Amino acid sequence: MVRFDDIKVGDAIPSIAKPAIGHLQLALYAGAGADHNPIHVDEEAAKAGGLPGIIAHGMLPLGFLGQLLTQWVPQRQLRSLSARFVAMAYPGDIITCSGRITGKREAAGEKMVDLELAAQNQKGENIQLGKATVALT
User: Fold this and answer.
1) Confidence (pTM)
2) What are the DSSP calls for 52-92, one per residue?
3) What is the pLDDT of residue 62?
């Protein structure tokens, strides 16, 4: 269990590395997320749209960032999560998610921890950058 008094600003939380993004994963995600845009599953459609090939759904790495947090603390402790897309992810990319504590505070009777998050591909390029707040005891 992660405790408020045991962490400090600047600490990193345990990172996670996801397996390479695959075509089956994108097809399944399209169904689960109701995003059937062909640029995520059809190579020719992606190229016709001016892309180099199929791209991953932007929300997929955001889900990975959510998993990063919920492997660190229980979901019920998550108070906010936001991210911005900074680059595309492609089939074959291995996404690593990391986080660093940027603040500690008390608000609304809870001990809050603010974090900066990053999802990077195997080249170390940022795919998404985000922020989160969790409540700790």
Assistant:
1) 0.94
2) SS----THHHHHHHHHHHHHHS-GGGEEEEEEEE-S---TT
3) 95
